[in-house]
Amino acid sequence: MKAAILFEAGTPLSIEDVSISKPQAREVLIRTHAVGVCRSDLHFVDGAYPHPMPTIPGHEAAGIVEQVGDEVTSVKVGDHVVTCLSAFCGHCEFCVTGRLFLCIDASVKRAKKAPPRLMLGDRPVAQMLNLSAYAEQMLVHEHACVAIDRDMPLDRACLLGCAVTTGAGAVFNTTDVTPGETVCVVGCGGIGLAAVNAARIAGAGKIIALDPVAEKRSLAGKLGATHTIDALSETAAEEVIAITKGGVHHAIEAVGRPQSAATAVKVLRRGGTATILGMMPLAEKVGLSALDLLSGKRLQGGFMGSNRFPVDLPRLVDFYQRGLLDLDSIIGERMPLDRINHAFDELRKGDATRSVVVFA
User: Fold this and answer.
1) Is the N end or the C end of the chain the one with fewer CB atoms within 10 Å?
2) What is the rounded average pLDDT for all residues in the chain?
3) Does 292 fall in a domain?
């Protein structure tokens, strides 16, 4: 199969012929149809986060099941599926207490003594985030994918695998927005726009979107923002506080920069909660001041939207099919796999919403 391989951080991906193993017990072979280009992948490509090399990035994908291994019960051949990097074992402490997104049990990977899932000639290829989706096929644990309605377009469905699960999940799961509460979303890429859209679905009152790019602010308005502000304005935080008469109940940071996290904390009202979604440089820290603590403000992470993937995914598909969740507007560009480096270049510029690689 054709796949985009990263041989060394900071270098372009190379399209190569890679061999993929047959499914073993509890594994699923998927024919990839579409995969979103996420900034999380860019962090690995540019070397901000370490990973064994060579590797195939990509984690926000949708496709069709081609083969299943022994003991697979959750999907069958022919199913349309969306993948998720937060594969779960189903029996660890995190899983049995409903926090599937925190599972890191090694049973979702192949045992070290088993043949690798991916090979480049006689060289093993490290699977990234349990998926490696920039490839014509994926071989994953059955709990790394969920079957969806076959009427759902796969080029839209792939966004549910990360951007929407993370952004919408932050609203529905991590923060549990109550109708009428105010929300500020810092950053209007794919994740931030999904959070804006979800805040509207959740019945939030004022929804304020911050981004330095005018086109993204306009798109946020289309998806549900009641107010938009240039994130580079020196008075951005003060404007949010003025609009909401004291600050927001919930601030969601969807950029991955310390300055954006600081803004998310600054725009909170007393007792408000800031949720940080963006992947920041590993050495960075985000915190609350003594006055913030005395004001009852809270700071939390929201990894993968605190998802319960088998439950949340079909609901997100339903939201799209009923016209509540706008995935079409989030997609900025569709392209073949051989333009993957172009997609990363666009991400580095900061103007892109979501590019989607579509396989023939």
Assistant:
1) C
2) 95
3) yes
Please tell me the distance from the alpha carbon of residue 74 to that of residue 27, in angstroms, as a whole number: 11
**In 3-state terms, what secondary structure has residue 3?**
strand
pLDDT per position as a tens digit, 129-166: 999 999 999 999 999 999 999 999 999 999 999 999 99
pLDDT digits (tens, 9 = 90+) for 225-244: 999 999 999 999 999 999 99
For residue range 32-70, what is the model confidence (pLDDT) as tens digits? 999 999 989 999 999 989 999 999 999 999 999 999 999
CATH of residue 251's domain is 3.40.50.720
Q: Which residues contact 39 (CB under 8 A, 6 or more apart)?
A: 189, 256, 278, 279, 347
Q: 135 with 174, same domain?
A: no
Select from 204, 217, 212 the least CA-distant residue to 176: 204
The answer to the question of residue 311 being in a domain is: no
Range of the domain at 104: 2-161+330-358
Counting Cα atoms < 13 Å in the Cβ hemisphere of 13 gives 30
Pair 197, 90 in one domain: no
Band of the pLDDT at 7, cuts 50, 70, 90?
A: very high
Mean per-residue pLDDT for 14-33? 98
Residue 296: count of CB within 10 angstroms of its CB? 12
Rounded Cα distance between 185 and 154, Å, is 27
**Residue closest to 142 by CA, chosen among 169, 164, 109:** 109
CATH code (residue 148): 3.90.180.10
Counting the structural domains of the chain, the total is 2
What's the pLDDT score for residue 351? 73
The three-class DSSP label of residue 357 is: strand
62 and 197 assigned to the same domain: no
C-alpha to C-alpha distances, 149 to 80, 152, 178, 278, 317, nearest whole angstrom: 7, 6, 29, 30, 8
